[in-house]
Design a protein that fits this description.
- By secondary structure, the chain is mostly beta strands.
- The protein has two domains: about 90 residues, 3-Layer(aba) Sandwich (Udp-n-acetylmuramoylalanyl-d-glutamate--2,6- Diaminopimelate Ligase, Chain: A, domain 1); about 210 residues, Hexapeptide repeat proteins (UDP N-Acetylglucosamine Acyltransferase, domain 1, 3 Solenoid), CATH 2.160.10.
- About 10% of the residues lie in helices and about 25% in strands.
- The protein is built from four helices and 37 strands.
- The strands form seven sheets. The chain has an eleven-stranded mixed sheet.
- Strand 36 and strand 37 form a beta hairpin.
- The longest helix is centred in the N-terminal third of the chain and has 12 residues.
- It is flat.
């Protein structure tokens, strides 16, 4: 399960899910039971998945899901044992189905379960400032500290030797050991996931979590959205400067250094040992390889292979950029 905190309300019969999806094909699926909604790579034969872009053709060919919400022009890329559910708008259809499985993932209202830390089990285990609030289902390891006015909402795991600054809000997040979260961060809130649908935008459920690995640091005022269908991941020993935004499903590798005001759009992936200068922007659904260096102020709008050095908008080979801007 992508998020151990949101409860799956399944299974549901496929007939109900098809009716919700607005499918166009009238195939008889013998009223099979579907236990979960997952992405192409993590689905099993008990699950339903979705396929909406040719960018994910290779994953689609290998999916193990029994059913897949897709479009007419993409259906032939799916394996024969995966039943195709053809719809007009794949993303809106899958959002509606995800909402059925995980109804609690839509809204991010404030956590009514929080208590002052002095009234919890952590009062003698954690060094804390004034006005610190803790929600239900929270775990905090040894030798941790939490600054003034911070809120650790329900469904958070914090490892040992971690430092949480002041005015921080964390929810739906798993933090490993020796991680520093500096002042003013918001981590684990829902991402900017919605689809325009006539008069009202349709909010996509965000059922993933944020995972932050050992020895990483998140700079002041940064925001990290939880994943939608998969998790948002910050790798080991990766340092984020101040005022960085990491959108849902982004995966940043190990030993990366990201300077201030960099923005990552959803579902992009960075390899290990990536360095990015300040105020750069990374578009969504891209892959940045290992040992890549991206100059400050650059706009990355296509995949970047391993060991590249790029700069500019659109970001291109550094030598070419310097030659063009003498």
């Amino acid at each position: 399960m992508t998020n151990p905190f949101f409860k799956n309300k399944g299974p549901y019969k496929i007939d109900k899910l098809l009716k919700i999806s607005g499918h166009q094909n009238n195939l008889n699926f013998k009223n099979a039971k579907i236990y979960d909604i997952k992405d192409l790579s993590s689905s099993s034969k008990k699950d339903i998945t979705f396929f909406h872009s040719k960018r994910y053709v290779e994953l689609a060919k290998k999916t193990k899901a029994s059913f897949c919400i897709t479009s007419e022009n993409l259906k032939d890329f799916l394996p024969k044992n995966c039943k195709k559910v053809i719809v007009q708008n794949v993303l809106i259809s899958i959002a509606k189905i995800t909402k059925v499985f995980y109804p609690d993932s839509i809204n991010d209202d404030f956590d009514v379960t929080v208590k002052d830390i002095s009234k919890t089990q952590f009062k003698n285990k954690v060094k804390f400032g004034k006005n610190v609030l803790i929600g239900k289902n929270v775990k905090i390891g040894k030798n941790c500290s939490i600054g003034h006015n911070s809120i650790i909402e329900k469904n958070v795991v914090i490892g040992k030797d971690c430092s949480i600054g002041s005015n921080v809000i964390i929810r739906n997040t798993i933090i490993n050991n020796s991680v520093n979260i500096l002042d003013g961060c918001v981590i684990g809130k829902k991402g900017f996931g919605f689809f325009p649908d006539k008069e009202k935008n349709f909010r996509y459920p965000q059922i993933g979590v944020v995972k932050i690995d050992d020895y990483s640091e998140i700079g002041c005022g940064s925001t990290i959205d939880r994943g939608s269908m998969s998790n948002t991941i910050i790798g080991k020993n990766t340092y984020l400067d101040n005022q960085i935004h990491v959108a849902h499903n982004v995966k940043i590798g190990n030993n990366c250094v990201i300077a201030g005001q960099v923005g990552f759009a959803g579902s992009s992936t960075l390899g290990d040992h990536v360095m990015i200068g300040g105020q750069a922007g990374i578009s969504g659904h891209l892959k940045v390889g290992n040992n890549v260096k991206i100059g400050g102020g650059s706009g990355v709008i296509k995949d970047i292979p391993d060991n590249s050095r790029v700069m500019g908008y659109p970001a291109r080979d550094l030598k070419n950029f310097l030659r063009e801007n003498k």
